[in-house]
Amino acid sequence: MKKFNNNEVLNYVKDNIGIFHQKRIDKLNKLNLSLILKKKNPYLFRAKHLLTSEKIVIGLVDAFISSGEETIFGDWLEGLAIFINQNAYNGRKSGIKGIDLEFDLDGERNIISIKSGPNWANSSQISKMKTDFKEAAKTLRTSNSNLKIKAVNGCCYGKDNNPDKGDYFKYCGQEFWEYISGKTDLYIKIIEPLGYKAKEKNEQFLEDYSCVINKLSKDFSNTFCDNNGKILWDKLVQFNSGKSNVSSST
User: Fold this and answer.
1) Residues 6+ apart with CB under 8 A from 8
2) Cα–Cα–Cα angle for 4, 5, 9, rounded to 5 degrees
3) Are residues 180 and 97 in the same domain?
4) DSSP-derived pairing of the beta strands 101-105 and 92-93
């Protein structure tokens, strides 16, 4: 194990957290009404008695942002985990399909698939991960048939009180960060620098968010409301679900 420097990790977080904020702003500014309307259930809008363009648009945009942020931040955390493991155990980003990180410890090759949290998969996704682990082990043993391999599903937050899954191990939260760093308290240490310039970045995000809500609300009113401002539900459902989408300027 290398001499582990907490300050290097904290500086990495401060230096790179801006990437997360910029990506979420970029994703927000790429939104258009057609994109978000086609991905959501118009019947739900009606059932919830949403009667204004703004309320519908806010619901659409917030749902889109929430799912997008999980993905963006998950990718960012993966990069942090790899950086930490490089500092601790000379780990490296894997080039093997389905594997994010590799490192050697106590005579074993550790292959890790990194996820944000513990509840990320259904049964078919778990099966695919197991297959990826098996294929990765087969690839690694091509040059060393006696290589000991440990497969791990690493989750950046949460808990799992039964880590041994038979075909692989599942380490979550504190256990994961300790596993890749050798530091029991690292999961706590990294939370503070994540707030670096968060207020400033979120104020910029909210300004862009307001502009997007205003623009898309205007587009929605122009396309799916009559001259009196009443929502044309038939037209909205046809656009979302009809065989031939209603033409629009969105």
Assistant:
1) 87
2) 110
3) yes
4) antiparallel
Helix (H, G, I), strand (E, B) or coil at 227: coil
Is 183 in the same domain as 65? no
Residue whose token pair is 């001259």: 227
Residue 37 near residue 56 (C-beta atoms within 8 A): no
Looking at the fold, whether 47 and 1 belong to one and the same domain comes out as: yes
CATH of the domain at 118: 3.40.1560.10
* Angle between the N-to-C axes of helices 6-29 and 198-224, in degrees from 0 to 180, rounded to the nearest 10: 20
| 152 in the same domain as 101 | yes
pTM of the predicted model as reported, rounded to 2 decimal places: 0.81
Q: What is the pLDDT of residues 199-229, one digit of tens each?
A: 888 898 999 999 999 999 999 999 999 999 9
From the list 83, 49, 57, 79, the residue with the least C-alpha distance to 223 is 57
